[in-house]
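Q: What would this chain look like folded?
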Amino acid sequence: MNRREILQALAAMPLASAIASCREDRASPPPAPSESKRIHSLQILFEGGFALVLQKNKPNRLIAFVPRADQDRHDFAHDFFFNDPSTPRPVMGKDPTGYHFQLSGDGLRTYPETYINPGFADFTAETEKWRLSDRVVTVELPFPSSINFSGRPLHVKFASGKSGLMPTNHVLEYYVEDAAKVKMMCSQMEGKCPSSPNCPPGVLRFFFGVSPQKKDDGQKHAVEFFNFMLHRCFPDLEERYRLSYIEASEERRAPTSAAIMPKLLPAVANSTTPHARLLRASAVLDCQSAGLIVGTNTGPMG
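A: My prediction, written as structure tokens:
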């Protein structure tokens, strides 16, 4: 699966909704009262430079965050996205925690441990020394059942000379026991936050993403911001995980003029009908890195 497809699914309007919007004489039926009983899964999606800390003494709380750089590092500035990867949220410049989301364990199955996909092996660590500096966004969650990723990881080189692979997103999954009790809260967004409007059947989904505001050198930004995160938040891991190179993410190719020229085609496909040529309909986040997954038994240092 292309690593951006999961974002495009969130950004795109469902076909059924698009058709219904053209039928003014027929209103969409209200959701069935028992809809929440059919929800069986909760997914939390993180795209971009999020560090995930599995804090075992909280007890069992996961803290996902993106550190905010000093004001003189304009090249480290990030846009934040929630549920809509095409529209950034206003910057929270005064609050040191940035946007602060919280999800209790109500309505969810509890897990003493979390399965972490082996594809994260090069970026999974343990430490008892970590910091929560000023952040773009902070998300507090219970331990999920699993942490996976979509798409192909990027090749990286560490400053030590070692090579590795870096997934650029995290997909957290929970089993839902009572969807009516599942609540994502954020005081900066007036309390309870709705899930994504484009969830698959039986699934609740929340999307969090960050993307650099400066787009001219994504690879350079990815390496430098990852190393900044290490230095600022995980100082005792800096020597081991410091990067010197991250592979370029997949290129975006603009459609040729021939590809976008309209023309009439028969309503019924036949052997002479050209194959469909799928083009990107909307921009998605241009991120080329993610943070570490860190296990700890201690709270953050002052």
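Residues 10-31, 251-267, 273-284 have pLDDT under 50 and may be disordered.
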